[in-house]
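Quick one:
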Amino acid sequence: MTLLLQIVFVAALTMALFFGTTSVVARVLQMTREKAHLAAMGVRLFLVVLLVVLLLVSGTEHRIALVFTVGAASFAAAVVDGLRLFRASRGRKQEMKG
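Output:
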């Protein structure tokens, strides 16, 4: 498998970890979406660390590049998720005012 294909696969997997966990945690623990967000952050962190460890112990040729890809994709996903939550909370505040 080429390096580019490996990077795309690892980035997609990392993004899926970020954007799927809040809904799953909310359903499994029967929490509201806002309360489940904190629990989902812990689950995401655990899954990202697990992915990094699996990549480091794997026999792939470009382990370090793939670990950097996980870090970059995690950062990008966290920024997008944070912006989404900020806009949602700002919208709720404006609804309460007017």
